[in-house]
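Can anyone check this?
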Amino acid sequence: MLTGTKVGLRARHEDDDPVLQAELYDDVVIHSRVQGTPWRPIMPGSKSSLVVADDSAQDRATFSVVDLADGTLLGTATFWGIDDHSRSAHLGMGLLPSARGKGYGTDVVAVLCHYGFVVRGLHRLQVETLADNFPMIRAAEKNGFVREGVLRSSSWVLGEFMDEVLFGLLAEEWKAASQS
């Protein structure tokens, strides 16, 4: 398990799936804002469920987020689009409604940065999020991510186009900030 100050990132356990399915993926609004794909009903336990982690996928690393104090499941964190040639990846997370607003997100991003830069030896990490996702924007900025641009009207979310904000962080920037 990878640990931060408040959270741990561990492999997905089978008993995590029903909780994540019910609290994140079965919620049409949350799914539509996070996934970038239209929501559709998926049976619990289905192989096509988005909560089922695929350990064989080389371009993705999926974690369950847990509270270090008591092991409570808090959500999910993902590295995706891992490019071993350019040494880059995208990161994202989804916290359960009960875990939001408690500072977990900033710690999740910090642990993902450690994983990307130290464990995987990546050079660049990237975050794309809806322009009104202020908790993710704050978590990225608190971890040193730099706002690189806006993708205007790039995401179709529940009947309207929304802007996405693009953030990037380079290994040398992260390392310099970690040492200060």
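Reply from J.R.: I decoded it. The longest strand covers residues 146-157.
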